[in-house]
Amino acid sequence: MIKELEGLENITIDKEFPMRNYTSIKVGGAARLVAYPGNLDEFIFVLNKLYKSNRKFAVLGAGSNTIIPDEGIDIIVISTRKLKNVIFNNGTVEAECGAMLSSIMNNAIKRGLSGFEFAAGIPGTVGGGIYMNAGANGGEIKDVLYEVHGWNNGEIVKIEREKFNFEYRKSNLPASFVVTKAIFRLGNGSSEKSSKNVKNYLEYRNSTQPVKIANTGSIFKNPTGIAAGKLLEELGLKGFSIGGAKFSELHANFIVNFNNATANDVVALINIAKTKALSERGINLETEVKIIGESEQNQK
Ligand SMILES: Cc1cc2nc3c(=O)[nH]c(=O)nc-3n(C[C@H](O)[C@H](O)[C@H](O)COP(=O)(O)OP(=O)(O)OC[C@H]3O[C@@H](n4cnc5c(N)ncnc54)[C@H](O)[C@@H]3O)c2cc1C
Any idea what the CATH number is for the domain that residue 29 is in? Predict the structure, then answer.
């Protein structure tokens, strides 16, 4: 199998790759193999090969919303990092799943297109963004999405936006669904106005979030009635640390890796917060971040 993958023309393969070098929070053990297909045909070839041979795998984009356990993962990771092509055609944008949201946003603004400014400061890809229904600055990816192309259990599929049931940080795509590319529709805008808005969004983010220390974005989804950060503060967890990880003093809903943290440190903090939220406030905190290997959901 590995030989077959290595035989592809544009693929790159890393064996026993330390996933702390892949994820934005910089924790976690090794993946047995990380494959970086060089184009969409190779991507689908790899997905079909693994599917037909009944192997478990995980598809990752930028790794900005993912935690890998310290013991590593005995599944193959397919990275979309080389699948970055984006084609602009007036207000229609066709983007491969590994394209960075920020790069589409910047390119759209240069062309006087508006609608993608929600992505300012979100360090993820199109695939991860759609899977998570990423959003910020008053918008979400669902607002500009027109159509998703993907792969699901050996089938090539196309889903129109209306057929999706997006929720807050959730696409409701089947766990087995892999986004290959997406079509977005943007409106006409003003480059100057959009750039100004983005500048304001980023300034606000830089002053309220720990952007300079390794982290994985918001750890928990906001529960009904209170922002997760405020709840964590009220539970006395702001600045609370285990090992090299802590709830940021700047924004408690961010766990930062301030000193060679392990995934166990991060997961221990998550579990403490969940237990305290439930016992002291009767609130079930749900993680926004995905822990690979924790559930079938992350294993396509
Ligand atoms: C500093 C910082 C700030 C952040 N701010 C925000 C914010 O404001 N708003 C927000 O919504 N998020 C935010 N995030 C979280 C994160 O950037 C988003 O969730 C982003 O959309 C994840 O994209 P990714 O490519 O990094 O996904 P990954 O972490 O690589 O993967 C996340 C999940 O998506 C799945 N996935 C990835 N690619 C595909 C694909 N092609 N097909 C199917 N499933 C796929 C993975 O299997 C995994 O379950 C932030 C993160 C950081 C580190």
Answer: 3.30.43.10
Q: Which tokens belong to 58? A: 């995980």
Q: How far is CA 284 from CA 83, 228, 276, in A?
A: 37, 11, 10
Which positions are catalytic? 169, 218, 288
- With cut-offs at 50, 70 and 90, classify the pLDDT of residue 108: very high
The Å distance, Cα 216 to ligand 1 centre, comes to 9
pTM: 0.96
Residue 135 sits in a domain whose CATH number is 3.30.465.10
In the structure, which protein residues have their CB atom closer than 6 angstroms to any atom of ligand 1?
A: 24, 58-66, 80, 97, 121-125, 127-129, 131-132, 134-136, 169, 178-179, 211, 215-217, 290, 298
| 100-110 average pLDDT score | 98
pLDDT in tens, 12-45: 999 999 999 999 999 999 999 999 999 999 999 9
